[in-house]
Every structure is written in C-alpha cells, then in structure tokens.
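INTERNAL AUDIT FORM
Audit reference: QA-55
Scope: verify that the stored structure record matches its stored sequence.
Auditor: D.O.
Record contents follow.
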Amino acid sequence: MKFLDQVKVYVKSGAGGGGAVSFRREKFIEYGGPDGGDGGRGGDVWIEAVEGLNTLIDYRYQQHFRAGTGVHGMGRNRHGANGEDVVLKVPVGTEVLDENKELIVDMDKMGQRVMLAKGGNGGFGNTYFKGPVNQAPMHANPGLEGQELAIWLRLKLIADVGLVGLPNAGKSTFLAAASAARPKIADYPFTTLAPNLGMVDLSLGERFILADIPGLIEGAHEGAGIGTRFLGHVERTAVLVHLVDGTQEDVAQAWRTVRHELEAYGEGLEDKSEILALNKIDALDDETIATKAAELEAAAGVKVRRISGFAGQGVTELLREAFALVQKQKGELAAEAAPPEDWRP
C-alpha cells in the first residue's frame, strides 16, 4: 500500500430542504387551513478516527465530499427527509488543519468523532406561520445553505519510540530485528522512503510501537534529501533511538548532523529522551569499537550503547531501556493529569 500522510480535501454539508406551502382540501372540511410541512435538515460532515488504517491514500483519488441535501416539506404536514451525513474515516493520529495550516482538531484517540461542517436547517412550512391574524399564510421558509470549507489532513503516526539517524545507519535492520515488521533493506541511501511501524513484544505486558523514518542528511530542514517531512511521525514518541553507523569514518560528526537537524526542526524533538547507539559493531574489531564509542561519548556527553541490528547484539537490552523510558513518561503524564490529593468533587 502506498503511504500518504498529507492531503487537502474539500467538504460541504448539505443544504436544508425548503418548507412547503400547502392547504388542506378535503371533502366536508370547510376550513382546512395550511398544512405545509417543514423541510428536512441537510446532512453533516464528520471525521472519525478508526482502527486498521495507517495512511491517507483513500483521499488521493477523492478530495471532494458533499453531504446530502434535505428533502423539501410536503402537504399534509409531511416533514421532508433529512440529508445523509458523510463520514471521513482517517487513521488515529490524523490532524485536521484549516487552509492556513492552523490546527482544528487532533484525532489522536480511537473512535474519536468530530463534526467538521453542520448541515443547514430545513425551512418552516406555512403551517408554522398560522396565527390568529394570518390564518392562511402563503409563504414558507427556504432551507439554510450548508457549510463549505477546505481542510488539510496530516497524519502523524502513533508510536512510542522513534528511530533516527543518517541514511544507512541500520534503522530498518534494527526495526526488523526488534519486531515482526519487514521493511525494505538495501545497501544504498534512502532505501526507506516512508515511515514503517513495528510492534515490539518483549514479554507479556511489555510491548510498544517502534517507528522507523527515512534517514536525515545535512540540510534536511532546508529540503535536502527527503527533508524533514517525516519527522512529524516521531513527534508523539516518548523516546528517540539515535543510531550511528559504526563503520563510517567520523561517528561524532554523524551524530552532530542528525542532532542539528532535530534542533532545526523543533517541535520538541530536541528535548525528547534519547538513547544513543553505535550500530553495526559486528563489522568491527574490539579496538575499533572502543575507539569509536569513546569518540561518540565525548561528542554527545552521554553513554553510548554498542549494538548490531544485523547480528542481534545488544538489541534486547536497548529495547528494554527504551520501554522503561516509555513507561516513565506515561507515569509522569498520568500524575500531571491526576487531580490534587485534597480535591473533592
């Protein structure tokens, strides 16, 4: 399935049906009076976060959505039928933005349902206007027009841990070693062209979602390479796992390049908990591993994990550390959301 994470769509709610002008004309009823029914309400446009979707590809081929128009009222006080609603189904984590890219709503919960455009009310029939003074009204209201707007849908995948690094740092290999995901793996840059998700199962009750995004290069925040477009998919993560290819010459510069791009992108990525790992140690001897790990630690000022996604060395230990950080953040968020101890309903 092709991955699509941003699309512009146009929605319009239905117009309300017009009220009817009608009078009773029945045998033996001398003063029938008005009996025009009200028009039906126009359909609404809704958006709903559903399970089983991880791309916006459905909206590549259809960008215009229009709810049903309400049916006009009829005689004998018959109310017009309401127009059909339209529901846009999107993956969990989809942001809805206006034309100026300002956030309208973040669909970050399964089953969340929000109205985007309300249908127009139906018009009153002439029965509504009957009174002591005007007992035979000859007019009815037209239905109200629906709302029309253009919106952007932008998907930010829901993941607990995100993988970052230069192209060919071994992120896809690590994802394949850590989960059942099978991303494309090759020995050329930018093999990964779209984010991949994998479910990591450490043990019963210990599981989290791991996201692999296309590699960053110097100048990515200015559009170099694939750019930083896919960094949005790790904005929601609790932890970043930064992989550095141990087989390259300057591992410290590799780390600096990616850190600079994260800081230039912003959105809080530079402040996230980060696990730094020297990858591909299966291709190095012990002396080289020690030297490069020391260079990396001196540049980053943090402990460097030594792993090999290909050989599986150190992978489980790193994943357990990432899981602990995820649980810690969830606990902190829960504590912030909890009411104070002296709170009384």
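Auditor finding: record pair retrieved intact. The first helix runs from residue 171 to 178.
Action required: none
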